């Protein structure tokens, strides 16, 4: 093996291993015939144009076939849609609960904090509605506005003096951050979101509201003491969202849906898993939730990956 | 399927007989009058796409002086695709020529 061949084989290492296993010998032959296979190869090296062509081929192979690239694009757009849907359902549920407060014989709380939360809830609903109606720019503006709230909450989650914010302090903001990042990555002007039935949002909000009001009712009826009530109320939203994600994942798996919904659900579940990680060290109450989420993340990721269109754009025929 | 110029020339290079990788590079250069010199990475990208679409397929393998050569041949689908593309290009060229003639006449008459 002369120096030129060694150097060309080194360049070919840019290519994926499976591709080299099929093509390397043939490409080396073609290149050495092209280069004239010089006897004195000292100093000979593949020209930059040749290296660039191998780098381009490598990039195309690693990104995969066009169908695979499209599947990843669909995944990113679904992450944005699911994330904004959850945020909107949560927001609408907050608005409904706020409106339902008089039913419990008390006046609505009108502190500045409550008003901010109410405004954020309304904007999160607007972000989702704008996205499903194809108003991408409006959706991005609203979603970015909504995003400021959980980030601010994460930053102010350490009110006690001497409690320095740690990296884990930002984890609760992840379920809000990732879908907005996906919104910017996956949607350009005029791009329509996948169709979602109109009743999905009211149904999601009703589910969350019903749960929250049910727990509040229990507390007011004296069937749960204050500490249990607070814990229940704190986790009710997360539990409902996680159960909804798990149910959606099972439905996608049973209906043999394409890769994108499964991968998107895996990413969304992973964001909730990350946000709940600090709970692992606080109490054991959330442990079942974390286990269920972890299992969902792994199984949907594996199932989604296996259903991706073939990475290899070709079957290298060998006879 | 969008047939690029390197794909068009590679298909054309395989019309008369099966060729190996470097053979395709040489023939494409000859067919294009030296204008298109396929890099090896580009050649195999082109061959991948053509074989994925069933337009070319492996004809045979040969080992000469320890070097592996794979020969590719045009399939019937490949011949049909090349025929359709050639007609499309010819039709476009004819339209362009007609318009250019009209332009010359108009400029000559002005």
UniProtKB/TrEMBL annotation, chain A:
Alphabetized UniProt keyword annotations: Membrane, Transmembrane, Transmembrane helix
Transmembrane segments annotated in the record for this chain: 78-101, 113-131, 138-158, 170-187, 199-223, 229-254, 261-281, 287-305
Protein known as: Integral membrane protein
Organism listed in the record: Nonomuraea longicatena
UniProtKB/TrEMBL annotation, chain B:
Membrane-crossing residue ranges in chain numbering: none
Domain Transcription regulator PadR N-terminal, residue spans: 11-83
Organism superkingdom: Bacteria
Family matches, as Pfam families: PadR
Protein name: Transcription regulator PadR N-terminal domain-containing protein
Organism: Nonomuraea longicatena
Lineage: Bacteria, Bacillati, Actinomycetota, Actinomycetes, Streptosporangiales
